[in-house]
Amino acid sequence: MKKIDLELAVGIFVLIGLVSLAYLSVRLGKLETIGGGSYTVYAEFGNAGGIKEGTIIELAGIEIGKVRSLGLSKDYRALLTFGIKKDIPIQEDAIASIKTKGLIGEKYIQISPGASDVLVQDGGKMTETESVTDIEELISRYIFGKVEEKEK
Questions:
Q1: Checking DSSP bridges between strand 128-130 and strand 38-45, what pairing results, if any?
Q2: Distance CA 40, CA 65 (A)
Q3: Does the reported pTM lie above 0.70?
């Protein structure tokens, strides 16, 4: 009998340890569980170079969400799905821009607030976007003399 009691106690202890480990993994990893307290917003970009799932979305330098997924729209533009925190309203005329931290740093999405009273609803689409500036393409154009100059 004592051996069964000891094995039962060890089994319960191991089970509690595994549940605790799973809880800490979710909390410390900032993983979204079902729902996650966010709403979905879509945005189309001409070029989404450097953006991947999990990319941070910022408003005024504060993280307000993450990129959930990337895909192509019907007209072959980059279609990004954002997960925005539920308590952060986004105006209909807000601008989503792809920015770079530092000169060659990681990419992130910056949202500039709009002035409209109309808010983007869950499942809505942001219409104002700015694609990433491709520095390599700009340098290439400059080196090979293909930079367009204004005619006077």
A1: unpaired
A2: 10
A3: no
In one-letter notation, the amino acid at residue 143 is I
In Å, what is the CA distance from 148 to each residue of 26, 124, 130, 142, 144?
51, 37, 21, 9, 11
> pLDDT tens digits for 21-68?
988 887 776 655 555 688 899 999 888 888 888 888 998 888 898 999
SS3 66: strand
Burial of 10 by CB count in 10 Å (0-12 exposed, 13-18 middle, 19+ buried)?
exposed
Assess whether 13 and 81 both reside in one domain.
no
Q: Evaluate whether residue 75 is within a structural domain.
A: yes
Q: Are residues 26 and 43 in the same domain?
A: no
Q: Of 68, 33, 73, which is closest to residue 51 (Cα–Cα)?
A: 68
By residue count, the chain amounts to 152
